[in-house]
Specification:
The chain has 16 helices and eleven strands. With about 425 residues, it is α/β, with parallel strands linked by helices. About 50% of the residues lie in helices and about 10% in strands. The chain binds 6-deoxy-beta-L-fructofuranose and manganese (II) ion. The site of 6-deoxy-beta-L-fructofuranose has 10 residues, from loops.
């Protein structure tokens, strides 16, 4: 299914009224405070988030999976679905592929389809947490960290194969997440498996094209439930430094123990120039991979406050990779992703409203109350009219979810694809 620009224009014409008044009111209020609202609207319109190729079908847990009908059965159909999201939002012009779930059979065709939808290939993801049907070695007891050298070499070679595919598609980065760890005390020698991991990552890094980046993703637990080799930001940061200047830490919001101060981790990594990018999602308990901003929107705002500060004050940190990493158990995958995109843009826009100079002043004077007032004034601002203006400016739908439903996207996909497809991924 392809949504053409004129259908979006027609939708916006019929759904225009409401936001204009709100926008004018907000612009007046912000302009009085010396805020450049046109500048913010442009920044929001330029903000692109990569869609995970593994989150376009219904997800599931070990307790069950409930299909959604009309799911993509191929990489080409997944790109079409991301094309729908991008037509509706003009803020999802990138895809992050996961190999081997999404090996392109026809690279030329896949690149053409992506180009037609205005989609580029962001970070490639390797998979050394599952044994493929005809695997020569097993990852059951680890991959890059495994005591079994053959498993380590097999995993290193897989990552090099993923880079090759990425090079053909035009990607410029590799995300490495390891499930490696232990379920019981004594199962692993912590030092040996960490040293194995460092050596393996260095082997991959050494073969990486000069203009590529490596993102090392950490996670405290699952699927191992006693220890995980790359368990936290410090371990990832250490390994990135051991690899070299083109290796960075990737922050998946769901990969933190309860109440972890993620915004402080973000500030620390940016100061050290080692923050590579994000896997945005939200969670209440574990790595729930649910809709961004659905549980802790204030925490997301505080993270973007550190990002806006860092982007301005930390030239030592590279441009960041913005990606979603989610799984959909009870929502239409595409509607869920539309909500996540909205939440990311809202948090970013609110963070752009923070008066950083006044905040610095108040911090200098240890005026604790004013510090909070400045942050919460921005957070308590309904910025949705600015995001609608950014969408209108970029030719997107002012209300993507309403457009998605008014244009009967899911029903059309079910008519085109039936209800039996099961998309690869989580
Ligand atoms: C691990 C993770 C990682 C992916 C996987 C799909 O929990 O966040 O980023 O490889 O999900
Ligand atoms: Mn992730």
């Amino acid at each position: 299914m392809k949504i053409t620009a004129d259908r979006i224009l027609e939708f916006n014409k019929n759904n225009h009224s409401s936001f204009k008044t709100e926008l004018d009111f907000l612009k007046n209020r912000l302009t009085k405070k010396g805020i450049d609202t046109e500048g913010i609207i442009s920044k929001v319109a330029d903000f692109q988030v990569a869609i995970p190729s593994w989150a376009l079908g219904a997800g599931g847990t070990r307790f069950g999976r409930f299909s959604y009908g009309g799911e993509p059965a191929s990489l080409e159909q997944k790109l079409d679905d991301i094309g729908v999201l991008h037509a509706l939002t003009q803020s999802s012009g990138a895809v992050s592929l996961h190999i081997p779930w999404d090996i392109p059979n026809d690279v030329k065709a896949v690149k053409e389809i992506a180009q037609n939808h205005g989609i580029v290939f962001d970070a490639m993801n390797s998979n050394t947490f599952q044994d493929q049907p005809n695997a020569e070695e097993t990852y059951k007891y680890g991959s890059l960290s495994a005591v079994n050298e053959a498993s380590r070499d097999y995993a290193v070679q897989h990552n090099l194969d993923v880079i090759k595919i990425g090079e053909e598609l035009g990607s410029k980065s590799l995300t490495v997440w390891l499930a490696d760890g232990a379920n019981f005390p004594g199962q692993n020698n912590f030092q040996r498996v960490l040293q194995n991991t460092e050596n393996s990552l260095k082997s991959i890094y050494g073969e990486m094209p000069e203009d590529w980046k490596m993102f090392i993703e950490y996670k405290p637990y699952e699927p191992n439930f006693y220890s995980t080799v790359i368990q936290d930001w410090g371990t990832s940061f250490m390994l990135a430094n051991a690899c070299g200047e083109r290796a960075f830490t990737l922050v998946d919001l769901g990969h933190h123990l309860p109440n972890t101060n993620i915004e402080q981790i973000v500030a620390t990594l940016m100061l050290k120039g080692k923050l590579g990018g994000f896997h945005f999602n939200d969670s209440k308990y574990g790595d729930d991979d649910i809709t961004v901003g659905s549980i802790k929107p204030y925490a997301l705002f505080l993270i973007f406050n550190e990002l806006v500060y860092g982007i301005k004050n930390n030239p030592q940190n590279p441009d960041l990779a913005w990606m979603i990493d989610a799984s959909h158990n009870t929502k239409d995958p595409l509607e869920d992703l539309l909500q996540s995109l909205e939440a990311i843009l809202i948090a970013y826009t609110q963070a752009l409203l923070v008066d950083q100079n006044a905040l610095k002043q108040a911090q200098q004077e240890n005026d604790v109350v004013t510090c909070q007032e400045i942050l919460q004034d921005a957070y308590r601002t309904d910025v949705r009219p600015l995001i609608k203006a950014a969408r209108e400016k970029s030719g997107a739908a002012v209300n993507p979810i309403k457009a998605y439903r008014d244009l009967q996207v899911r029903n059309t996909l079910i008519k085109e694809r039936g209800t039996k497809n099961q998309a690869t991924g989580l």
